[in-house]
Amino acid sequence: MTAEFETEIVKTKEFNKIFMIVFIILYMISGFYIFMYDKENQNIYLKYLALGIYLSGIYFLFGQSFIKPKKIGKLKISTDRIEFNVDDDNKNIPLNELENIYLKYMDYGSWSTHSIFGNKNYLRITEKSEKKYDFEILLRNKNSKNDLKKILNSPEFYEKFDFMKDRNSRTEF
């Protein structure tokens, strides 16, 4: 009997760094203007503009984890092969053709980790022909994390598997 783990391969939206820096500066200025600037000297139009910037900043700080990432494929890992389907391109890698598999573990999704759709973890698969595949996968809950852990720590993957835990991760892998 072979154990299996199945999940989605996703692509999350990346924001422009310049846009983010400008927005963070505006967010700090609006917070200062709303809460610390003398209330008697505030311009009503600037106050509403600062409030709009502040509220949209709250959305970007806390609401981003509630946006579902775009699904681009499926990944299935079993104790005898790895299968993935990305943009209608099916690939099947038997274990004897696998050089290594590397997981960058962030965390699994839950209310305590502020990600209801699952935390994004990064998986790199390398074939013996030196062909590499980089995926962003979701671990939806503790059960899916334990399923993946059970397969990747199995004797079949013992010498081929390595992982790195992200410093912001709240749980052990």
Question: What secondary-structure arrangement, pairings included, does this model have?
Answer:
Blueprint: E1 4-11, H1 17-35, H2 44-63, E2 70-78, E3 81-86, E4 89-94, E5 98-105, E6 119-127, E7 132-139, H3 142-152, E8 161-165
Parallel strand pairs: 5-8
Antiparallel strand pairs: 1-2, 2-3, 3-4, 5-6, 6-7
Helix pairs in contact: 1-2
Largest sheet: 4 strands, antiparallel
Strand order in the sheet with the most strands: 1-2-3-4
Tally of individual helices: 3
Relative strand content: 25-35%
| SS class | alpha+beta
Topology, number of strands: 8
**How much helix is in the residues?**
25-40%
How far apart the termini lie comes to: 24 Å
- Radius of gyration from the alpha-carbon trace, in angstroms: 22 Å
Helices and strands, in N-to-C order? EHHEEEEEEHE
Rounded average pLDDT: 80
Shape: elongated
Regions with little confidence, pLDDT below 50 for 5+ residues: none
